[in-house]
Design goal:
Strands 1, 2, 3, 5 and 8 form a five-stranded mixed β-sheet that branches. This protein has a three-stranded mixed β-sheet with strand order 4-10-9, with no helix packed on it. It has two domains: 3-61, no CATH class; 75-187, Cupredoxins -  blue copper proteins (Immunoglobulin-like, Sandwich). The protein has 205 residues and is an alpha+beta fold. The longest helix is centred in the N-terminal third of the chain and has 28 residues, at 3-30. The chain has helices at residues 3-30, 35-61, and strands at residues 90-93, 99-106, 109-111, 114-118, 122-129, 134-137, 144-147, 153-158, 163-168, 181-187. The chain binds copper (II) ion. Residues 134, 169, 171-173, 177, 180 line the site of copper (II) ion.
Length: 205
C-alpha cells in the first residue's frame, strides 16, 4: 500500500470514528443511564484505553510484536531453504552464546522429535510450518504460539525449571492432530553441553 492510499484510509477512518462517536453521544443522551452505570462504563473504557496504550508503547519502543510478525518464508521449499534445511534444525549456539532453536511443524510432528536445552537461559525458538496452520505449546511455560504457513514464528523465552516437557500442537490440523507432539529436555544450566554444530549456513546467526 502506498503512502497516499494509507493517508486517505487513515483520514477516512478518523472521520468515520468521529461520526460514530457523535451518533453514540446523541443516542446515549436520549436514554437514561444511571450515574453508577456511567461510572463503570467510564472505568471500563479507561482500562481498555490503558491496555491499548501499553500494547502500542511496547510495540513501538520495546519491539514487542506478535510472534509471526512479517518474516516470510516459502513453506513448500523449506528443505531447500538454507536456514531450515534438515541439517540446521534443532539447537544451535552462536559465538556470542545465543541459543537458537529451529523447528519445523508438519502433519503430524515437530522436527526434530527431541531437543535438549539449558534451563535459566534465554532461548530463541524459530518455528515454521511445512503445510497447514499449527500451534505449539509447552505446558507450564509461557512458550506458546501459532505457526502460520508462510511465516516464521519467533518466540524468545526462558525455562526456569529443569525437567521433561512435551511440545504439543494446539491448533487442530487434521485427523492425526492429537498425536502431534515432541519432547524437550530442559537440563540444568551447568550440566548442559552445547551441541557441536554451531554454524548455520544462511539464516540468522
Ligand atoms: Cu495440530
Amino acid at each position: 500500500m502506498d503512502t497516499e492510499t494509507l493517508k486517505s484510509k487513515c483520514t477516512h477512518l478518523w472521520r468515520e470514528s468521529g461520526r460514530l462517536w457523535l451518533d453514540f453521544r446523541t443516542q446515549t443522551s436520549a436514554i437514561h443511564v444511571d450515574a453508577l452505570e456511567r461510572k463503570w462504563i467510564t472505568i471500563s473504557l479507561l482500562v481498555i484505553g490503558l491496555m491499548v496504550t501499553i500494547i502500542t508503547l511496547d510495540a513501538l519502543f520495546d519491539g514487542i510484536n506478535p510472534p509471526s510478525k512479517v518474516e516470510t518464508i516459502d513453506s513448500a521449499s523449506l528443505h531447500l531453504s538454507e536456514e531450515f534445511a534438515e541439517d540446521n534444525l534443532g539447537v544451535q549456539v552462536d559465538d556470542k552464546g545465543k541459543v537458537t532453536i529451529r523447528m519445523v511443524a508438519g502433519r503430524y510432528s515437530f522436527f526434530p522429535k527431541h531437543i535438549d536445552v539449558p534451563a535459566e537461559t534465554q532461548l530463541t525458538f524459530r518455528w515454521v510450518s511445512m503445510d497447514v496452520l499449527h500451534g505449539v505449546h509447552i505446558p507450564m511455560t509461557n512458550m506458546s504460539t501459532m505457526i502460520v504457513p508462510g511465516y516464521v514464528a519467533e518466540v524468545t523465552t526462558t525455562i526456569p525449571k529443569p525437567g521433561e516437557y512435551p511440545m504439543l500442537c494446539n491448533e487442530y490440523c487434521g485427523l492425526g492432530h492429537n498425536h502431534m507432539w515432541s519432547n524437550i529436555s530442559v537440563i540444568a544450566k551447568e550440566d548442559w553441553q552445547a551441541p557441536a554444530k554451531t554454524l548455520v549456513k544462511g539464516g540468522k546467526p
